[in-house]
Structures are given as structure tokens and as C-alpha cells.
Amino acid sequence: MERAKISASQLFVLIILFELSSSLLIFPGQSAEQDAWLAILLGAVGGLVLFSMHHYFYRVNPDASPYETLMNIFGKPVGWVFSFLYILYYSYIAARVLRDFGEMLLTSAYPNTPIIFANGLLIAVCIFTVRKGIEVLARAGELLFGIMFVIAILGFLLVVCSGLINPDELRPVLGNGIGPMMNAVLTQTLYFPFGEIIVFTLILPYINEPKKVKKAGLWAIGISGVVLALNVAMNISVLGVNLNMRSRFPLLSTIQTIQVAEFLDRLDVFFMLVLVIGGFFKMSIFMYAVTEGVSVLFKLKNPSKAVHAIGIVILILSISIASNISEHVKEGIEFVPLYVHLPMQIIFPAFICLVTYFKTRKQKKM
To answer: Which residues cross the membrane (predicted)?
Structure first.
């Protein structure tokens, strides 16, 4: 671990930026159709439970890296394997996030640019930031959070002033019954974006106010869930369910419909900037988790030197995981939640916490 400390308020900001980044870009819980906003709120409740579980694991040894704690609990061989699996998981998710934002740039602004150039520019910025450490990333989050907040409020007001919102598109609530909505929670919104909060177990040991960690994390997840639900409800109200399902990037489609006083339009470029900033933080946090894992498992004296190699691996993986955007989206909906997110976000952490509970209980009795 590097010698760095960040505050609970910086953790709060990083979690919000992380949760909202790529989830603003796409349509979470789309199988619930007009009830997607409800599926997001229930997914956020699940995220609160998962964060509480991760916080329990963090409290076992607040000053140590989770990779080190795993090896202490399970022994070096088994703990090393668990840690390596999470390094692979974080690398894969970082590559998927990078591909999401690369495809957005190509679709919306640079249709003739090869994907490797767009992704390369994005990953280069992340490499530079991760090399500087978690304190720099946290301070950048504080600085850019205010800018993103102002632009988001402005965008919402412009949508309202344009008279585009039609609340009837959200009706009937639970018109298809509770089944499709719960299916969306259990197969989509629980894992993305809220289950991905597991990566913050790598950030928690750097907080200089351990007693405020749980409160900051729970508040950040709760606020993120409400904001994301409002965003999805707005997109459905403006575009309708069918257009939301067909659109690759519903928020940008919503912003493109803004026209105030017949001159204020085509504002999607500004909101692309906001989305890219969010994507930068999400990719950087995942890359930081991978870098720390590699440094712990392979005992690197200077982890920053490994960042370039890790960035190149993530870049190559982002291009090779799918031949086109349709294949990428299909993989993210059908394969990733069940075979990647479920074991890594829920099954393994629950098993690890269970073993940790019985082991610490046994030690106290001795």
C-alpha cells in the first residue's frame, strides 16, 4: 500500500462519480421497461447491503490491503488465488467501461476514428492519474464533482423548460406485474452499477476517518440510486420506452432533443464531456485496484512502474472482448451478470465474510 490518506468526504464524492459514470451512459434495468426506475431504486437497496458486507470485511484489518487480509485469513496459497481472480475481474470490468466510452465517442462525435485511438487516449489519462496515487485522484474528484453537478442541474432545467417531459410514459406503474421489475433487479441493477462497489474495498484502508467510512459510503450509494432513478425516469418521460430500448445512449438522445427559444440546442457535446469525466474516474479506480493487487501479489517495490503495462493490457482487452458494439452490449446483458458479476460481487464476498466471521469468533474464544 502507498502512504496516502483521503477524507470521508472525498470517498463520498468518488463513490458518487463511480456509480453514476457508465450507468448514466446506458439504460440500466431496461427489461423492466417503464418500471426501470423502480428496479434501480431496489438495486440501490441491494447495494447498501453489499457495502455493509464489504465494510465488515474492511473492519477486520482497517490498515491492510484487502489482498493482504485475504492471505491472512485463508493462508497464502488460497488467498493468493482469490486475490488474483479479483485482479482479473477488475481488469475485465475496466476494459468493458473503456469500451463503453470509446464506443460513445465514436458513435456521437468521431464515427471514422478507429476504436483503438479513442480508447488509447482515454486510458492514457487514467495511466497518468493512477501513477500519481489515490490522493491526486480524490482531489481531482472534488474539483470536477462541482462542475459535473452544475452541468447536470442545468441540463435537467433545460429539459423541463423545453416542455419535453411526458409523465404518462411512466404509466402504468407495475403494469406488467412485479415479476419483470424484480427480474431486472436480480439480473441487472443489483450488479450494475451498485454491486461494483466491491472495488472500493481497495480504497477504504486509505480513509483517515475510519468511523465515518460506513456513513459516507451508504449515503453516497443512496444518493447515487436516487439520481440514477431520476435520470432513467426523465429519459423514459422524454423518449418513451421503445426509443430508450433502441437507443445506444439514451441520455445523449434526450439531450439532443433540447431546444429552447429556437437557438439553444445541440448541447450533447457538453454532456459528453461530463460522461467522459465520470468514465475516467471509474476506469481509474478499477485500474488502481489492479495495480495495488499486482504490487501485493508480486511484491513490487515500485508499483507505479507497473501502471503502464496494466493500462496496455486493459486497452488490448477492451478492443478484443467484442468485434462490434452489438456484440459488446449483448455480452454485457446476457453473459456478464450471471457468470462474472454474481460470483465476484456476491457469492465469493459472502463466502469470504462467512469464513472471516467464524475465524475471528474462534480467535476471540481462544
So the answer is: 12-30, 36-57, 78-95, 115-131, 143-165, 185-206, 218-241, 269-294, 306-326, 338-358
User: What is the SS3 assignment for 287-318?
Assistant: HHHHHHHHHHHCCCCCHHHHHHHHHHHHHHHH
Q: CA–CA distance from 276 to each of 101, 193, 223, 279 (Å)?
A: 7, 16, 20, 5
* Dihedral, CA of residue 256, residue 105, residue 102 and residue 118, to nearest 10: -170
Report the 10 Å Cβ neighbour count for 157.
11
CATH at 73: 1.20.1740.10
The model carries a pTM of 0.94
* Beta-bridge partner residues of 6: 207
Q: What is d(CA 76, CA 244) in angstroms, rounded to the nearest whole number?
A: 48
Strand partners, 260: 264
Contact 203/14 with Cβ under 8 angstroms?
Answer: yes
User: What are the tens digits of pLDDT across the range 94-143?
Assistant: 999 999 999 988 888 788 889 999 999 999 999 999 999 999 999 999 98
